[in-house]
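Hey, resending since the last one bounced:
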Amino acid sequence: MKKTALLLFALFTTLVQSQEIKPIPMINVTGEGKIKIIPDQAAISISVETKGAKATEVKKENDTKIDAVLKYIKKMNIAKEDFQTQRVNLYPNYDYEKKKSNYMATQTVIILLRDLNKYDALMDGLVDVGINRIDNVEFKSSKMEALQSDARKLAMQNAKAKAEDFVSVLNQKVGKAMTISDNTQTYYPPRPMYEMKTMAMADGGGGAPRETLAAGEIELVVNVSVSFVLE
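The structure tokens again:
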């Protein structure tokens, strides 16, 4: 009997407590922080590609050219931690037009250029010493971490402003944030518009100074979802 009474009392207490729990009035909004950045760096991917009838000769020629490429990069005072070999390939290749096999060797080097003013001189020199492929030019900013922090703050400000707009006609106020979710996609810097004009100089080396690169802008976007308490 006592056990039954205790059970009933516990059940009654639980029911009373559950009735006393009231839902918290909240508003859920999204916010966006957007910053445009003038890039001051470039990640450059260049390759040396050689082909021939014998694998040993093709590899030796490719290694000789890459040696010259690496020495030129050092000559341009680019720090050793700012360039590295990314890929080394040697494989047989069948030429369907000539109906015979040959060998292809490729080595790719990635360079982080911290001074865009060196771009023309660097690329001209690399072509002279043997590169025959420019695989990619991707623009970056040396201040990316600080700018991402600024974009996050802008996203939160945008979310709060939206919430205040919604409740402005309800005689309520936006209170503290209960939940915050970062909906930003993994950041891959978009390739801004750039132009690579013909690198050949005018006859005799004269003519106006060349402009072979337009860095444009990088757009950094942060998205958040926020739940605010309504007061």
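Helices lie at 2-20, 55-75, 119-129, 144-167.

Sorry for the duplicate.
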